Amino acid sequence: MSVLSKEPPLPPWGYALSGSVGAVLANVIVYPLDIAKTRLQTQPKRKRSSTNYLDEIEDPKYYKHTWDAICKIYKQNGIQGLYVGLPGTLVGVAATNFAYFYWYGLVRTAYSKRVTVISTSMELVLGAVAGALAQLFTLPIAVVTTAQQTHDGPAQSAAATAKRIIQHDGITGLWRGLKASLVLVINPSITYGSYQRLKVALFPGKSSFSPQESFLLGALSKAMATVATQPLIVAKVMVQASAGKAASKDAQHLNNFGSALWYLAEHEGLSGLFKGLGPQLGKGVIVQGLLFAFRDQVQLLIILLFRLARKRSA
């Protein structure tokens, strides 16, 4: 690895390709956690009552915790229920991460040519810029996937779900939650800013890392970002889950990001703002750890292919 680390930096598309491949592989592994996390975050909080609380918590559509959600989804819809929306998710994950790592690599490389050391605050700014650009192009995929994962009844294809959203909310419905998504670019911004700083703090002087070290760096940086932004994540998921659905008595509270946050705080309190934190952390930490582990190995593979191409052309 030390020899490879002396190679010149990859072009932006190399970082983008390695990031998207790593993200796809990681998300396939933990997808059932993503389903459980989405269901837990979008279900309303149940209030304890002396008459029907026990009946309510046994409701097959009410999930007490992550494992309960996975078991009930499997019981109702089989193994395919735990992977509903997977194709759309993988397309979205690949597109989002390709766009993010491309723009991040581009803006970070351009900025690093002007300064010797990039400050922590500028790392966050560069990450936010890259995240905002990526979200503008890939948000419709996330909206369709969330609507698929929270749809009651038989599973719908991505095309059918997109058609339902457009019929109900118009074409702009595919960008539902855009404001929340733009606010949430601080999540990958914190993640990758923390990653850069943790590399220096935990492994000073190293420029290449083993899969285990990459996993540790990715997991720690994602945990920090998730805890900091969980209320924003819950509000965003609730707004996107309401896309294409008929109005309900609470629909007015889910029209936008701010009203969803206010509704959660008023009706569900602090626990509502952090509901689903367990699976969100579990999924995020595992995915980010695997993403960095896979990404770094794919980057090494790309560098090796560059070397082979140079030798053949020489």
Which residues form runs of ≥5 with pLDDT under 50? Answer: 1-8
Q: Architecture, CATH level 2?
A: Alpha/alpha barrel
Task: Give the structural class.
Answer: mainly alpha
The helix/strand order is HHHHHHHHHHH
Number of strands: 0
Helix content: over 70%
Gap from first CA to last CA: 24 Å
* CATH homologous group name: Mitochondrial carrier domain
Features:
314 residues, Mitochondrial carrier fold, disordered N terminus, mainly alpha, single chain
Tell me about this structure:
It is a single chain. By secondary structure, this protein is an all-alpha fold. It has one domain (4-313): Mitochondrial carrier domain (Mitochondrial carrier fold, Alpha/alpha barrel), CATH 1.50.40. It has eleven helices and no strands. Helix 1 (12-42) packs across helix 4 (86-112) and helix 5 packs across helix 8. The relative contact order is 0.15.
Précis, in short:
This is Mitochondrial carrier protein. By secondary structure, the chain is an all-alpha fold. The chain has helices at 12-42, 53-57, 66-77, 86-112, 120-149, 158-169, 178-183, 186-202, 211-241, 257-273, 277-313.
Layout: helices, strands, pairs:
Blueprint: H1 12-42, H2 53-57, H3 66-77, H4 86-112, H5 120-149, H6 158-169, H7 178-183, H8 186-202, H9 211-241, H10 257-273, H11 277-313
